[in-house]
Amino acid sequence: MFLINRESNEAISLSKKTFQELNFKERQHLQEWICKNTDILGERLLIIQKEFSGFDDTRERLDLLAIDEDGNLVIVENKLDDSGKDVVWQSLKYASYCSGLTKNDIRMIFQEYLDLQKDGGVAENILCEFLQVDDFNEVELNYDDQRIIMIAANFRKEVTSTALWLLEHNIKIKCIKVTPYELEGQILLDTEQIIPITDAEEYLIKVANKKQEEVKIKEQNQARYNVRVDFWTRLLEEMNKKSNLFSNVNPTKDNWLGTGSGYSGIAYTFTATGSYARVELWINRGSQDENKAIFDKLFVNRDKVETKFEAELDWQRLDDGKGSRIAYSLSNVSIFNEDNWTEMIHFLTDHMIKLEKSIKEPLQKVMKGS
Mean per-residue pLDDT for 203-224? Predict the structure, then answer.
């Protein structure tokens, strides 16, 4: 392999090596490199543990445990020059061991990993940020089947054959070939995804169509989505009897439901989760500075707004975030407990009407002056 020097247009020769020649260690070097460069695996992953051994009645350790953007567990097994003939079986064992991990198990495993690092942070907060979910109660982890990623310089035929068969049977597995090179004393690593085979278009379409169909069926059967649609349907029926504010809004499977305030990027929003119900004015226009300026101008009118609302509101400037909110919440209720629905619907509809009436005039003045 050659690199081209842009200044001189000269070809620079790269020397292909083996990991053994480079004295490259599996855990000390390759594993740490993967941890710091998860994008080489072809997707965005969050590493939550290294050398995980939390399996009952066994001392076995998997190399890396990660979470993907859908909240699925990803078992990452890395080998050096040769994949070994047993790597698929080993990975499948680890996937089966991890299948029983609960959301709280995963949180604790990740927190243990973070506690070993300087300024590691709080697992719940990092998981919420990675999965782009506001409330950890709404985070879904290990809900779907576990996934496997295998990394090696060379994959044996029995490994690739088995991996392709597993793919055909909808086991989510990926093989990534890593090749080391040396350039003037520096080690360079090149990666190539060999399974799923990138040029096997017909095969990939078949797998993708099958997966799409399975996802569609699974979504239709997921009870939590159906519950949310039923809840919002009943809430909108009640809300539309009292106000036209949400008259053009349809039920959704999400945990929030919003409508416009008449100003772009500013919305009245219902939120219902497994632990609380909330009404709010959500401010998220073009820029963080503009959002904070609008919030600050509304905050000047706090006493007037709260007097008309007849209660203290939760003024959340959210300095580190782009948006801001003004909210009022009901705790200790759950959208997934139908016995709470009557209380939640009355709370949300009544207080949304009060919120809109108490903040509408100050909002108009702020927006006219902005």
Answer: 64
